[in-house]
Amino acid sequence: MNDLNNTPRTFEELMKSEFDVSISSSSEDTAGNYRKTETPQGIQTFDQIASKIEEYLPNTKDTLKIMLAVATSGTRKNRVMLWLLLVGSPSSGKTDLVKLIKNNKDVMSLDNLTLNSFITGERSTEKEKTYDLLPLLNSKCLVIKDWTSLFSLDEKATKKIIGDWVNSYDKSLSKFSSRRGNITYESEFSHVGCITPATLNKHTTYLNMIGPRFMHFIIPDLTIDQENQSFDAIFSNEDRSIKEKEAGALVSLYLDYLNSRKILDIKPLSKGAEKFLRVASRFMAKARGIVVIQSSSFKDDQGKDVTYYEALDTQIEQPWRAVQQLIALSKYLALVANKDEVGSEELRLIREIVLSSMPADRANALKVLRTAENQEITTKELSDDSGKSFRTSGRLLEELSALGILRKNKGGGQIANSYQIEDSFKEFLTADTGEFLSTYSVQEMFGGIER
Amino acid sequence: MKIELLKSIDRLCVAIDNEVDWFLVSSTEKDLKRKSFAKDMFILKQKETRQIAKEEYERFK
After folding, report:
1. Which of A185, A324, A391, B57 has its CA at 20 to 30 Å from residue A434's CA atom?
2. What 3-state DSSP class applies to A340?
3. What's the CA gap between B42 and B36, in Å, rounded?
4. Which residues lie across from A311 on neighbouring strands?
5. Exposed, middle or buried: residue A408 (CB in 10 Å: 0-12, 13-18, 19+)?
6. How far apart are CA B54 and CA B61, in angstroms?
7. pTM (whole model) above 0.80
8. Residues A104-122, buried b or exposed e (16+ Cβ, 10 A)?
9. Parallel, antiparallel or unpaired: strands A190-195 and A141-144
10. What are the two backbone dihedrals, phi and then psi, of residue A297, each rounded to the nearest 5 degrees?
């Protein structure tokens, strides 16, 4: 039988017995006064926190890191705001993840937005007050756990709300209403939202309106072992709510610690990282581009109709916004991992985000290409591998070629056209990020830095 | 049977002990972050104690 403790324990003793963590007895030695990139005693490292979260939400380490990076960016002034959509099928754990930070004082969590939430045109009366959301968001992270509900409003309302989002990205929003006159707010905030792939694919019109302001991250699938781990947890009848609360408290504490750190502690990007981000931003800009495709047909020698696709027009953004988003995100990823510079692990996550931020059908086509021999593929091979129809595969490859991501090698006679990844993007898409950085350092050492 | 009962009482006492200690820290701690963390832990421990009490009651009723 344990001896009862008649003297109340201190915070330090409780932390030791509960989490096996030793912290200083002076509160001055906690998050506020640490030396640059040292983790203060008592604050767990990101890896420790991630392994605790993965006990009940398997395979969420990368997603957690990206979410924390975006969340902490909201509390600081950045060149561009970081807005992220976590894309995952229902029950993939995305809502559980964002719930971990919703009670943090620098996070505002909402389930839905109504018309004119950002700035209302109504005037306060004695009986009814009105509230504007935009000034409340300044220096915070806005979490919306399901974007589907936003798109379920009528079309006019959704377009209005999306329009407000687009305008607020410039960190300033002005409105004129007959009851309140001219109202302007300067507000800078980050955003983490959750959405399913079906909703994303269904509402491309709305999302094209927002355009390149949002980055996406596709939540990785579970392996068989991780699925079994989840089943075991559910069948064990253990009370998840206690684990959830504990995890939420830990993650919130870690977010407070991140918010107290200075982003300037992160060293400037190395030449290799700069080169990687240049290529990544060019790729992201092209991958998000709009292509107007026309379907044409002709009769072949046997009199059969042959359909082919021709790109009539393309609209590709300039990569300036993309590169600023990726630079900021890479530094915040390093901050979350408690590193003092952007390394290969951060760049690996950046690549995943870049690939997630393109339309799903294009991303799937590229996935097949990356593993193909010589990264070269024909329409028929893509159709066989991806399960899509020959026509759809042909259209996709033409789109990617028109955007400058693929190079078309024209066949002749019986030989079909083949498509290959453009040389400028090959290394970015296929090489290990560590190898990319080390190759670049070698090039730098022996002269001739490619820009 | 008596030994099982004693073990249950011990388990409950430890849980109550933890709950009370976290409550005291949440009331007396000056650092706001620690205070907020301790409050969350107190609520967690309160739930745990209730759960243990319920389990033990079901076992011995």
Report:
1. A324
2. coil
3. 10
4. A293
5. middle
6. 10
7. no
8. bebbbbeeebeebebbbee
9. parallel
10. -145, 155
Using alpha carbons, select from A236, A223, A240, A193 the residue that is nearest to residue A59. A223
> For residue A15, which of B30, B51, B18 has the smallest C-alpha distance?
B18
**Minimal CA separation from B55 to chain A, in Å:** 12
The token duo for A199 is 């909703």
Give the containing element (helix H, strand E) for B52. Answer: helix B32-60
Q: Are A234 and A309 in contact (CB under 8 A)?
A: no
Instruction: List residues of chain B with CB under 8 Å from any CB of chain A.
Output: 6-7, 10, 13-14, 17-18, 20-22, 24-25, 29-31, 33-34, 37-38, 40-41, 43-44, 47-48, 51
> How many Cβ atoms are within 10 Å of A354's Cβ, its own excluded?
26
Nearest-angstrom CA–CA distance, A181 and A202: 37
How many other β-carbons are positioned within 10 Å of the β-carbon of residue A138? Answer: 14
Longest CA–CA separation in chain B, Å: 46
Radius of gyration of chain A from its Cα atoms, rounded to whole angstroms: 25
- The token duo for A122 is 């109504």
Question: What is the number of other CB atoms lying within 10 angstroms of the CB of residue A3?
Answer: 5
ipTM rounded to 2 decimals: 0.89
pLDDT in tens, A157-182: 788 888 888 888 888 777 877 777 78
Q: Which of helix, strand or coil describes residue A13?
A: helix
Do residue A27 and residue B31 have CB atoms under 8 angstroms apart?
yes
pLDDT single digits (tens) A176-209: 777 777 888 888 999 999 998 888 877 777 777 6
Closest residue to A11, CB basis, from B13, B14, B34: B34
